[in-house]
Amino acid sequence: MLAALDAAVREAEALLGADAATEESVRRGLPAIRRRHRLTRITLERSGPHTYHVTASVNPSRRTSYRTLFPYRIGKAAGSFPTTRHPHSVVQLRAVLVPFATGSGDRWTGFVVTMAATPGEILKRRDVATRYLDEAWNDTDGSRNTGDLAAARTAVVIGVNTFERLDPQKGDPVRDAVDAVGRRPELLLAVFGFHWTPRWVKDVDGTPVGIDEVRAAYRGLRRGRDRRRAEANERKLRDKGALPYGVFREEVLGSSYTRRAVELLQQVNRQVHVVGQDADTGVAAISGKGVLKAYEDVLSGMARHPLLTIGGYHFEGADWGRRGDRRTRQLTRLANRLDRAIREAIARRYPEMLYPTEPNMLVKAWDRDHADGIFQNARMLARLQVQGDVYGIGGAEGRELRERLRKVFGPDFSVRYAPEASTATSAEPGDEARGLAVTPAAVRRARRGRMLMRGREEAVRVRHRMYALIIQSQTTASAQTLAREFSRAARLGPTAQRELASLVFVHVENVAMLMSDDPRLTARSPVVRAELKRLEESVAGLLETGSGRNKERYRQGVAQAQEITREIVYAMTAPELAGLWRRVRHALDEVTRKPRRGGGRR
Prior knowledge:
The chain has helices at 2-17, 23-37, 119-124, 147-151, 173-180, 211-219, 224-231, 245-253, 256-265, 291-300, 326-349, 378-383, 397-409, 440-447, 467-470, 479-490, 494-503, 506-517, 526-546, 552-572, 578-592, and strands at 41-48, 51-57, 61-63, 67-68, 72-74, 83-92, 109-117, 154-163, 188-196, 200-202, 271-277, 308-310, 313-314, 360-367, 415-417, 423-424, 450-453, 456-459. With 602 residues, the chain is an alpha/beta fold. The chain folds into three domains: 2-69; 83-204 and 234-312 and 357-419, no CATH class; 438-590, no CATH class.
């Protein structure tokens, strides 16, 4: 009995002493200790301002030592975020030299590359700006738009950001990062800094509080150990959903520097597009061209440039560092290749539902012929003055941008998917919660009907090893993802979204599993035709039961979702993807094959 009590007290001490421990986090952990050690009672008790101890009882009772718990935590990104411009900047924005005759037949396109980056990201890649003058313009034959030609069509605007910390004496990394960005005299460039304040809330009830109140409580902590535990709140902000990604991107897009860069390029270009990029995004497109050259080729044959051009990303040639074994790299790339094939199928039917990938996409800022860029639209300019009115506040900022452009431009909204301009990015193999990397462990879990969510295993709808690739973060092979993006674009409600996921788009998942089991299948195979028949029956049932809603939008949406699903199924069963499915099956076999007796794998 006393041994169990001692063990319970030790575990309670660990809860109290954990990094970023709060009253709420300790209270959440106590029931499990009570059950595990069969206690009659375990309570968290206050013994002073922000000071607590835990009392555990069987018979007799014991208590932990006294610990100070910080009464605040950083909440999820929501509401408004105060931002402050850093006084230091580097600006090279001056009139562009005209390197060519601008006759009426010239159709040059300019690009303003924008990115929000942390000081650490900048210090890892000091050529983050200059590479857009040369590498980004490479052609497949090795030639490039060099010198004055590239300089007249390219500008880079970077916003280096960090957050206001509990301890303002921690130093200011922004100035050094701004100065660290490599530059060349001919490059139109602006690098500026800004600070943002996390959304601090009371731990007990989630009420937002100001940074001054939180800092006052921090200064009241006398012991270094207590201060370090309070500072632990400032770590892993992405995992907490606390990063206001939309605010970061708006701060750069809406800056006077981006406006000025567009004004300069419009003097010698017929259109100017803003290129959304990240510091860790590659500048070589999957086609072998530089990303700006690839975008130029996509746009050059169009009479009218789209408002939104989605390049996307891939994991071919990405830097995996020391993480990500061979099989993880193989599985992740195969999942991404399937995703790109599905996106191409969607683009043929309904490109408006495609998620705009923030690290690599174009937004048309200015158009000499049609005057339909975002910087030529009074409503968009007004929205850029209101925080969160273009990209939203938190994550999914690409979707927020798409929906706001659709709302402002109405029938004139246009989007193009350009997979040939996709660039390499990291799958972040060390961050399992991110869900980009597909690991052998995930495949084996999927075979058991399980998946990892927020560090815990949860059930999936079917036991199948292919499901690990289907539920990869951000893939369009998932019925849930397809239904979410389609419903948002088609303006359907949550009930319709659930119905489309479980009765329509689920057939995409089913066919993907069939193909991974037998790569020889085609659209004419009996099992695939049977799946399409079930799709047809499901849609008929939805149209029949949904007609009572008296919503023509719903009926049109269901019919359109059916056509998109059929298009995806035909794409997945096309001969062009047979090689991909053979590699998928081989990779899954390799991961799930039982080891030989005596160790090792076949």
